[in-house]
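Ticket 4471: requesting a sanity check on a complex prediction with pyridoxal-5'-phosphate. Repro inputs:
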Amino acid sequence: MTKSEQLFQRACGLIPGGVNSPVRAFGSVGETPRFIKKADGPYMIDADGNQYLDYICSWGPMILGHNHPLVREKVTEACMNGLSYGAPTEAEVRMAELICEIVPSVEMVRMVNSGTEAVMSAIRAARGFTGRNKIIKFAGCYHGHSDALLVKAGSGVMTAGVPDSSGVPAGCTQDTLTAVYNDLSSVEALFDSNKDQIAAVIVEPVAANMGVVPPKEGFLAGLRALCDRHQSLLIFDEVITGFRLGAGGAQGYYGIRADLVTYGKIIGGGMPVGAYGGRKDVMEMVAPVGAVYQAGTLSGNPIAMAAGIAQLTILKDRPEIYKNINELGEKLYGGMEQIVKETGAPCTVNHVGSLGCMFFTGQQVENYAQAKTADTERFARYFRFMLSHGVHLAPSQFEAMFLSNAHTEDHVELTLDLVRQALA
Ligand SMILES: *Cc1c(COP(=O)(O)O)cnc(C)c1O
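Returned structure tokens:
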């Protein structure tokens, strides 16, 4: 038995499924999760000493590569001053300044501890502001695991084959309406049948939790227009796209201004962090200024702020990083498209910038129903082939590949060679 297998066996007796987040399980790909000992740059090393080229990047946060020296230095420095105070710090002010400076639509921001919390809180603020209860989300978009949003919620639940979560009372999701991604008419219909009741539309501006599904031309602008017409708020869940598609996230990339934005992953530099922010008049609804209650004992934690500030500062000062990872994305995903064409494999490659996904379906994938036509058995075989050759992909057909600035053209070439062999 390998060390990973031994650790997994121990873990399974103690932790549900042996993992602290279901997306880490390897059940759907017929493998044992690799237990990671350390990571550096684009590589992860497991408990048995195997090295993997990593395309998960901690599900996005490690945009600079693992164990970036400057981020590590700032975290170490912060640790010397104590781990938490439960009182405000200058680092929180600096973090807020950075986010508001980089993202024009964010006039005020509140730090939280995860993307789930950020979204849950943004929804509450939107409901408080509008005095309405209903929200519209899209099938296949994931917005964390809070009760109201566990409806047609993408990868984790898709991979487990569970449509929705048990333990969520129907009352919690009765105000959650579901539309079809990339289909404005489905949104319009919901607005029409729920006149003056929609608090907000929440969307992943590039859907990245049902594989990768980019917004069609005009989709995001159409949502903006519908929200304006019906005095509803537009919430961009940029937990994945924020500070990844560019410093301005999807808002900057597509030129659409949302009323509220949620962040996580990248803004923590690898520490557990989330944030929500946006229009000042909406954010001033939040306690202690306004009547929308939201709190967090460890929110704005100094160590997490140190990591986040270090990472965001690097991203802000070095726009060439985005140029680099986007070009790498074009090479990697464009290369995969080429291989699919050459081999005639029934696959579809979707990508935006450094995010991409190869669906094992011959159909185009523009929404959840089309994503679900993917052959997960074939994906599992592909996954195992890549893993056995030292490439660690996310263990699900319905997850994105993430590139970091530590990946190089050589890594991309090596990966494409393996993809070619796998599809042949
Ligand atoms: C990961 C993710 C979340 C949830 O963030 P957590 O930090 O895992 O709670 C929310 N929205 C999107 C789009 C995500 O990808």
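Notes from triage: Residues 320-343 form the longest helix (24 residues). Leaving this open until the requester confirms.
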